[in-house]
Structures are given as structure tokens and as C-alpha cells.
Structure prediction request, 477 residues.
Amino acid sequence: MTYNKKSHEKSIPVQGKLIVVEGIDGSGKSTQLRLLEKWFISKNIPVFFTEWNSSETVKQITKKGKKSGRLTPITFSLLHATDFADRYERNILPLLQAGYIVLADRYVYTAYARDIVRGCNPNWVKKIYEFAMKPEIVFYFKVPIDIAVDRILSGRPKLKYYEAGLDLNLSNDPYESYRIFQSRIIAQYESLSLSENFTIVDGTMEIEESQRFLRSTVTKLLPLSIKNQVRRITRQ
Amino acid sequence: MNLSSIKRRTRKVIFYGHAIPYLEDIEIKGKFIIIEGPDASGRSTQIELLSSKLEADGHAVLNAGLRRSELIGQGILEAKRNFVLGRRTISLFYAADFADQLENKIIPGLRSGYIVISDRYIYTLMAREAVRGISSSWSHNLYGFALRPDIVFYLDVDPNELVHRVFKKNTFLDYYESGTDLRLSDNMLESFVMYQKLLRKEFMRMQKRYNIIPIDGNRSITQINEDLQKRIDDYLINLQS
Prediction:
């Protein structure tokens, strides 16, 4: 019998590195992570980019439910966990095992912050994501709320229902609601920042300056073989 | 049973673990009954019989069950058929679907005083997860938002007898009900029996913790029905005294 209770997880050593960015919308994290991806690609280092809430399979299945506006904090939380699990089981974990650099635009901390703000029990949420491995590094993009909100609202005519946190009844005005919602998420990030040992990035820095900081920090974490590859090519 | 003699006492809901925060303090009037058991164990037949009898006695009955929510509906089934989803992903999908039913159907029904009869509950989900190597502490936490039912029955049918009932019903063995994804055996029949035995073992393991009442499901429909009906009637009568 090939069936073995504990055989299917963690049996293969992870050789790759998991790099995560976190922060509220408009903190500049996605721009920075995309630049990091370009950098790895230019060095011919196997890299994989994964975004929050992006599993096609899960999206297909939940599209109807989400549109109907019947999501409660619990179902909202569980659907995001499903999306994450799908990307984790099919992409993140196998690619890490195969030695890839995996870049994650948001990771379990986004779930912690949002679900807790929506009223879910913190221990319940954390235990659900227990199967996810700890990243090599988490860059937390810290930015004053006004700057982030301005960045998001300029050039965007309308906020989406859940995006603005309208399900929380914070305010009838979507923009006011969005602002309160985002400040609460910042508060969650601040407390996670200590317990989860985030590396803080000043989100008001110039793009080039932040990227230099990210690249030099990441280089130190890479396995020797990749590190040499980065340096060799950089020197040429 | 005399309808007027049943006291409509309200009581606070009890959750297994971390409550649904915004539903923590709600009060319910109804009763919550679960019929668990493998495929072809006679669950739906029994639920039909029990519902008719309870309705004849003057109770409002609401039927619920796994995989009936509008949130996800058929999506899971299709995805499973296409073998695209991992085990953890499937578990979370089922949990989301279950949560939707619990919040939108079961809890409102109990609040307005229905006897809610659910065709399977979190125990089936937890048993399936356990035989697929997912830790019981993870599953237990995941379903912590579930309500504790009043009575849980498990229709216990010998897996070898179950095979015959499945063949009578479908003439073929279902891929998932045979646990084929676990690769227990290349032979479908053997795989089915082994899988059902593993699930049964999980139910026996959960019996004490969740107060699950095993019902000998190898008997005739009428015998099983009399047994279930008597236990439910006794339960309802005991509530009055």
C-alpha cells in the first residue's frame, strides 16, 4: 500500500527562496517586486511571480458567489485561503522545491491583516495558513496613509465594494470607508511587523533608491551558486 | 406528539471552536439534527421519512446538506473531475461552501424555530481530510465556526454491504467515493472497500469527541427509520420535562 498519512508534504527539501512584499495598496510594493523579477530574469535565474487572489481555477468557481455580494467575513476569508492554497500547492511549493526564486506580491500576512480587520478570530486565521512555509524575507512597505490613498485614488474613478471595505459599515462614503479600512490594516501590519520580523522599506523613497536596497538585501540571502551568478554577471 | 406541549425555549448557540464573531450571542429556537453516513447508506431516504413524520407532527422542517450552497455549487465537482485541485485547496473550498450554507440557511432556519436536518456535516469533511493526511488539529480549527448540533447519527454500514448498494443505485463506483485519488489499490472495488473502511475508522475515532451516535445501517429501511424516529421523539419529549 503506497498510502501514507504524512508522506505528501514537506518530504522534498526546499532549495529555492521565497521573497514576499507586503503593504497596503499604493505603498509601491508591486512596482518594486516587478523590478526584482526583471533583475532575476536578466541574470537568467529561474524566478516565479505570484499575486494575491489570482488563481484562475478558484476565480472561475467563485465568480458567481462574489458577484452576488453574499460574502460574509468567514466565507470571504475562506475563499481567499482557497485561492492561496491553490497557488501554494500547484506553484509556490513545487517551484521552491525545484529551486526557483518565488516572488510573492502579498502572502499570508495580507490574510491575517484583512481577516482580523473584518472581525475573524486571529488564532483561527493563523492556524488555517499554518501549512504555508515561512518566507526567507518579508519586505513591508511602510507609507503614510494619505500618500497611499492619493496614489490609489488618482486615476481611479470608482472603488470596488469589498476593496473599499464597504461590507464593514465603516462609512457610507466609499472613499471615507476605504481610508478607515486601510488605516486599520496598517495597524495590523504594524503589530505583525514585530512578531513576524518584517524588513521595513520606506515607501516614500524614490523608486531607484528602494530597488537598490531590495537588491542588495536579497543578494545576501541567495544560495552561494546563485549569488556567484549574480555577481559574475554584474561585474561583466 | 402534542404540538402545544413543546416549549419554544430560546437558547444561545454553541460553536465548536472560535465562534463566528458577529453571530456569537445570537439565540436559536430550532433543533439541529445531523444524519451522517457513507454514500448509499440510505441517508436521503431516511431524511425524507423523518421529515414527513416531523411535519405530520406539526414541526417546520428544513433540509440542508453539503455541497448545496449557491456560493460555489457545482464548481467544486467539476474541478475535482478535472483533477486540477490539491487536497488542501479542496478542503478549503468545501469549508467556504459549508460556511455559506451555515450562515445563510442553517442559522436563519434555527433562529426561526425550524428543525433543521442536515444530510452530512463537518464530520464527513474532517474524515475525508484525515484519510488524506491532513492533521485533525488543522481540520478541527478550520471548522471551529460550526454549530454544535443537538443530535448526530451515523448510519454505519459494512463496507462490503455498501458495495452492493452502490451497484444497485448506480451500477458503477464513483471515482471519489472510491478514494481513487489515494491510490489504495489498482482494483476499483478493492479501493472502494479500503477507502470506506478508512473513513469508517475516522468516524469511530470522532465518535466520542463529537457525540456521534452510530446506527446499525445494515438493517432494513423500516427498521432503521423506527430506530431513528424513536430516538428523535425521545429527545424532543425530554426537552419538555
